[in-house]
Every structure is written in C-alpha cells, then in structure tokens.
Design brief:
Helix content: over 70%
Shape: globular
Radius of gyration: 17 Å
Oligomer: single chain
Strand content: under 5%
Structural class: mainly alpha
C-alpha cells in the first residue's frame, strides 16, 4: 500500500486533479451535481479513459458522504431507485464501449458532451407535464450508459430535473443520492471485471479528502433563494473545465 501511495502522489498533473476535485466539491456540495463534469475533462487530459473514470469514482466516493443523511431526508429515495434501475440496464453497455475507445477520441467525447449538455441545460427548457416513470427510467438508463462510457452520470438526469417543477431542495438531494449510488455500483463493476487500477484508485481516494472538505463548504453555502446566482457560477466553471480538457491543447 505505501508503494501505491507513492506512485499515486507522483502522478502527472496531480495539482490540476486536486484543484478540479476541490472546485467540483464546492459545486456538488451546493448544487448536488456538476462534479463529474468539472473533473472528467481535466482527468481525461492526464489519464487514460479507464483511469480517468476510476479516478472520478474514487474521488467522489468519500466527499459527498457528510451530506448524504440530509439528502435522504429531503429527497425522494424511491424516485432515485427508479433512476438507478434504468441506469443498471445500460451501464454494462457503456463500460464495453469505454474499453474499446481511443484516448484522444475519449477526450473529445467527454468535453463536447459536457458543452452540448450544458448548453441545453442553460437554455431553460422545461417539461410541460410532470415526471413520469418512463421518463425517469429513460433518463437513468442514458445516465448509466454515459457513466460507463464517459464517467458522466449526471447530465441526462440533471436536464430531466431542471426541466421539472420540483423544489430545488428535492432536486439537489436526489442528484446527490443518485450520483453516490452510481459511483458505488460502477466501482464494484470495474473491480469484478478486472478493470480496476489500484494506484489510480488510491490517488482518487487521497484527493477525495480535499473534495470532502469542499463538499461540506458548498453545503453550508446552499440557500434556495440564492441558487440562481451560484448555478450561473457552476455553469461557467463546468464550461471552462470542458474547454481546458479538449485534446486540441495536447502537444
């Protein structure tokens, strides 16, 4: 284990990974989402596709735990179960697609996907009807595929909830529970499939320490009456991270 720690701490781009996780923790602690969209473009620029996803999963396993009890009380756990059931249908397909992907193409897919989905979210599109079970399962399935394929579980579900009329506190809580559950499932699947890189896993867990602190700070900043201002800041950070992660900057 000490050797794994030493190798992890010597990883290329360590300072940028720590910074990305810290900023992502602030955003996730406040809004309940956005962390993977901040971390993945940076991680994909210094790690292989599988390593980047392992890093994100492990960095996010610890950081949201202090906020999980309140999310369970404020959210709708049964609805999260419906989302997860959809995710489980498509997650293995996403992992298969990931295993066959070129690293440069992976970087483009991650950054461009984030930019497109962010633009759609900002556009302000709203559901005319309430959330239905087919819509919820479908969003969960798309999120599951994107988790396995690009380490981005949130965007489809974020778009679904942002287009709903649910209270901000419920949306935030459901995001946190859904993302935490998917991280645990993805970690288990990668381990069972023999795809786990333990050096990168240790790196993610170590960097998750600052992320935990940032999550707690972000949660203290949460105020439904001021969420619009913070959401704009989160969108800017996500967009900047996606642009920085474009493969065009390599070499």
């Amino acid at each position: 284990m000490p050797d794994a720690w030493a190798m992890a701490l010597g990883a290329d781009g360590l300072i940028w990974l720590i910074l990305a996780v810290f900023v992502a923790g602030l955003v996730r602690g406040f809004a309940g989402f956005g962390s993977a969209m901040i971390i993945m473009p940076v991680a994909s620029s210094v790690l292989t596709p599988v390593e980047a996803i392992i890093f994100v999963i492990c960095a996010e396993l610890i950081s949201p735990l202090p906020n999980a009890p309140s999310a369970w009380r404020e959210g709708a756990p049964r609805e999260v179960v419906v989302l997860i059931s959809g995710a489980l249908l498509a997650l293995p397909i996403g992992i298969w697609a990931l295993s066959a992907m070129d690293q440069t193409l992976f970087g483009w897919v991650v950054s461009v996907s984030v930019i497109i989905l962010l633009a759609l979210t900002i556009s302000g599109w709203r559901l005319k009807s309430g959330l239905t079970r087919p819509l919820t399962v479908g969003a969960g399935a798309l999120g599951g595929f994107m988790t396995g394929f690009a380490g981005l579980p949130g965007p489809p579900v974020i778009m679904l909830y942002m287009a709903s009329k649910l209270p901000v506190s419920v949306i935030r809580a459901n995001f946190l529970l859904y993302l935490l559950a998917l991280d645990l499932i993805m970690f288990t699947l990668l381990w069972m499939l023999g795809m786990m890189n333990w050096t990168i896993a240790v790196l993610g867990l170590l960097v998750g320490g600052p992320g935990l602190l940032a999550n707690m700070m972000g949660a203290r900043l949460f105020d439904p009456s001021k969420s619009a201002v913070f959401r704009k800041v989160a969108y800017l950070v996500i967009a900047a991270s996606a642009i920085v992660g474009l493969p065009v900057w390599k070499g």
